[in-house]
């Protein structure tokens, strides 16, 4: 069966960011595990045997060779990258981000969020340069399925804690635009999702606008080509699609509830991906 699965862990502070993808992919032609590391100015890829990918979901522990990520922290050792960080307490979301879609068979891709926000302490050495997180924050999400959507918008930020995805989704011969978004603000969790009645008002490389009842989330990417790095992404279980991601770009987030503006902030350390292939 053609399939992939993996988890994405991002660490950031006010100055810099680093993200690591732990994954594996399987098709009739090939199967492998892999690590991808993304910094603001570079990306790296290392391949491993498929069975080197070992995942325990409860408690969350994932390892590929000497590389690990868990509720305690993350450790990486590939090529010219080495280091580790410790994590504070995870902030999970209230229930599965897929909602009722988690029960639908034949979905192209299923998304999950492990932790919206947690503290990060430690450092990495990347090509001889130290990337330090003394007062850092982190985020972890997962994906599994056969392929990434052909057209999608994704962004993530830690302060405030926001994760938003929108995609053109194929399902049983039909296509629809779906969105799943989480906003954490002052101890409350807000969710905008297609299965809750959310409607996508704008969806392009520069902007995503979603309205759900009296909630409205506006995301404007002010520097959509800033710090973009190449990554491998899945197509029918093969990691032979090239996408680009920035883990430190400038994004303007605005979130309203009942005409009250709860969030109006510009982040320079937001993660962002957009693809339309």
Task: Explain what you see.
The protein has 277 residues and is mainly beta. It has one domain (3-276). It is 0% helix and 70% strand. The strands form two sheets. An eleven-stranded antiparallel β-sheet has the order 4-3-2-1-11-10-9-8-7-6-5, with no helix packed on it. Strands 12, 13, 14, 15, 16, 17, 18, 19, 20 and 21 form a ten-stranded antiparallel β-sheet that branches. The radius of gyration is 18 Å and the shape is globular. The model has no long low-confidence stretch (mean pLDDT 95).
The arrangement of helices and strands along the chain is EEEEEEEEEEEEEEEEEEEEE
User: How far do the termini sit from each other?
Assistant: 24 Å
Q: Count of helical segments?
A: 0
Q: Provide the helix percentage.
A: under 10%
Strand content: over 45%
- Approximate shape: globular
Runs with pLDDT <50, length 5+?
none
Strand order of the largest sheet: 4-3-2-1-11-10-9-8-7-6-5
Largest sheet: 11 strands, antiparallel
Q: Compute the CA-based radius of gyration.
A: 18 Å
Number of DSSP-assigned strands: 21
Structural class computed from helices and strand pairing: mainly beta
């Amino acid at each position: 069966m053609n399939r992939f699965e993996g988890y994405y862990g991002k660490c950031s502070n006010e100055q810099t960011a680093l993200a690591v993808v732990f994954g594996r992919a399987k098709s009739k032609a090939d199967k492998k595990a892999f690590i991808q590391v993304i910094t603001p100015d570079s990306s790296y890829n290392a391949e491993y045997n498929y069975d080197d990918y070992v995942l325990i979901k409860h408690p969350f522990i994932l390892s590929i060779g000497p590389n690990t990520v868990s509720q305690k922290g993350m450790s990486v050792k590939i090529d010219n990258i080495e280091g580790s960080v410790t994590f504070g307490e995870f902030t999970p979301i209230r229930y599965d981000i897929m909602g009722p879609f988690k029960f639908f068979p034949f979905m192209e891709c299923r998304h999950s969020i492990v932790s919206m926000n947690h503290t990060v302490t430690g450092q990495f050495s990347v090509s001889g340069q130290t990337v330090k997180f003394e007062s850092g924050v982190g985020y972890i999400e997962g994906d599994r399925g056969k392929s990434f959507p052909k057209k999608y918008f994704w962004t993530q930020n830690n302060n405030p804690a926001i994760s938003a995805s929108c995609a053109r989704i194929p399902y049983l011969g039909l296509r629809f635009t779906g969105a799943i978004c989480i906003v954490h603000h002052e101890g409350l969790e807000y969710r905008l999702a297609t299965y809750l009645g959310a409607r996508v008002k704008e969806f392009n490389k520069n902007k995503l606008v979603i309205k759900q009842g009296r909630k409205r989330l506006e995301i404007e990417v002010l520097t959509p080509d800033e710090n973009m790095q190449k990554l491998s992404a899945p197509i029918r279980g093969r990691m032979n699609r090239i996408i680009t991601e920035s883990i430190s770009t400038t994004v303007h987030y605005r979130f309203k509830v009942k005409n009250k503006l709860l969030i109006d902030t510009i982040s320079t350390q937001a993660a962002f991906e957009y693809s339309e292939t």
